[in-house]
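Page 47, continued from p. 46.
Same chain as before, 139 aa.
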Amino acid sequence: MTAIVDTGPLVAFFNRSERHHHWAVEQLDRRTGSLLVCEPVLTEAWHLLSRFPRTQEALLELVASSAIRVAFALDDNVQDIVKLVMKYRDTPMSLADACVVRMAEIHARAPVLTLDSDFLIYRRRDRSPLEVIHPSMSP
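Result:
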């Protein structure tokens, strides 16, 4: 099953010293098809992996090979993003988080793979919870 991937699992996948490295490897390995991301998630991951240039290259190679697919255009969704950021301003919601929530609305059958517990709070436009894959929910 395809999933929408947030920043945390991507960073944990590449960083063996990350607390959730093994969980991220297991989760990403069990997905079929491309993993869906937005450019803000890739930007955050790139920044967080800056101490590991080879992992940055590997991240781009996953995009080039279509294992990770950018499946979101901010300019097509900017009004919805503004509404989400305003709705969750008390959380607060990052641009990457807002894009992932919007992607979960667009790709309704794709769960969100994340380390961020805020995704357990976020809701779709129709107020339904997101389908989330999070370490706290793993057996």
